[in-house]
């Protein structure tokens, strides 16, 4: 439940997902939508029209999202970000779904985009690395204020969420060692705030599709930031141990090197960047998708990283 800002009355936060998809399809003139995929925050439907062909409808599960270490954000803002980034990247030749419309229905906002098909061969990790290097070389869109920044510059945003997540994890895991204070984390990350590049920050199998082992679609830009590419590669490396992510980090880095030098940062800075990803995963498996075994493994990893900073 959440509270209506005008009336103060408690209203459901959950979206009537199928109703939202049906309403958006009717407004755009599509056939009845059918489920095509789902994730933690969004459900994707497939529909068709004579004018638009086959399209995807991205429907939020909630009206408002709130995570440990983050400021709450609305589903509409997340879809606006997806629309803006894909509209920027599609003409540049990157494999993203061309956005067609952001439809406000009585049930929820819905993003309508071209439907990208896959032959399910799986993208080769070298190709994923090359795509990331290409992404990091394109100019970021003007005017974007990424949700994950929480209104702060890149270095402050990363330091704040590592520190805040660590404090939250410490409440449920009392034996966690201390981290350096927030000002010290910001100081370590400050050099990374120069010349920010566009980062996807959720590279894993569920957000990629392929055709003949080439990446033909990169989805879900909700974690995107404007920052240093080293964070992207640190996040990918920390995603790699989870088998469902299908991240093979060494050939991914080899593919990256074919397009651009792999970014190098001070080892302590790299540790903070890795902590950003590991603390996020720890919170996910502690709160949003509870998994005691994975939570334990990830907390061990956080302890190892924290020890490298002390």
From TrEMBL:
Stretches that traverse the bilayer: none
SUPFAM superfamilies: Protein kinase-like (PK-like) (SSF56112)
Lineage: superkingdom: Bacteria
Protein name: Aminoglycoside phosphotransferase family protein
Organism lineage string: Bacteria, Bacillati, Actinomycetota, Actinomycetes, Micromonosporales
Domain Aminoglycoside phosphotransferase: 35-257
Record organism: Planosporangium thailandense
InterPro entries: Aminoglycoside_PTrfase, Kinase-like_dom_sf
A Pfam family: APH
């Amino acid at each position: 439940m959440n509270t209506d800002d005008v009336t103060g009355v408690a209203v459901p936060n959950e979206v009537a997902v199928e109703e939202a998809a049906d309403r958006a399809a009717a407004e755009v003139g599509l056939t009845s939508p059918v489920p095509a995929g789902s994730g933690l925050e969004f459900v994707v439907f497939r529909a068709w029209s004579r004018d638009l062909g086959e399209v995807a409808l991205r429907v939020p599960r909630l009206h408002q999202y709130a995570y440990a270490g983050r400021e709450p954000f609305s589903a509409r803002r997340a879809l606006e970000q997806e629309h803006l980034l894909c509209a920027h990247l599609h003409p540049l030749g990157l494999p993203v779904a061309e956005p067609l419309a952001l439809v406000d229905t009585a049930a929820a906002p819905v993003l309508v985009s071209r439907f990208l098909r896959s032959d399910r061969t799986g993208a080769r990790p070298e190709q994923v690395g090359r795509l990331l290097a290409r992404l990091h070389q394109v100019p970021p869109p003007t005017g974007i204020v990424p949700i994950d920044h929480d209104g702060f510059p890149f270095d402050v945003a990363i330091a704040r969420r590592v520190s805040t997540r660590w404090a939250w994890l410490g409440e449920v895991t009392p034996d966690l060692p201390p981290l350096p204070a927030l000002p010290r984390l910001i100081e370590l990350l400050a050099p990374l705030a120069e010349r920010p590049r566009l980062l996807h920050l959720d590279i894993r199998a569920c957000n990629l599709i392929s055709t003949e082992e080439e990446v033909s679609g990169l989805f879900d830009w909700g974690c995107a930031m404007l920052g240093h590419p080293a964070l992207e590669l640190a996040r990918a490396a920390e995603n790699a141990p989870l088998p469902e992510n299908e991240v093979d980090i060494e050939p991914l880095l080899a593919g990256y090197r074919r397009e651009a030098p792999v970014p190098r940062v001070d080892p302590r800075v790299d540790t903070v960047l890795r902590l950003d990803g590991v603390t996020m995963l720890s919170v996910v498996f502690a709160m949003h998708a509870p998994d005691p075994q994975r939570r334990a493994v990830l907390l061990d990893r956080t302890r190892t990283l924290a020890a490298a900073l002390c």
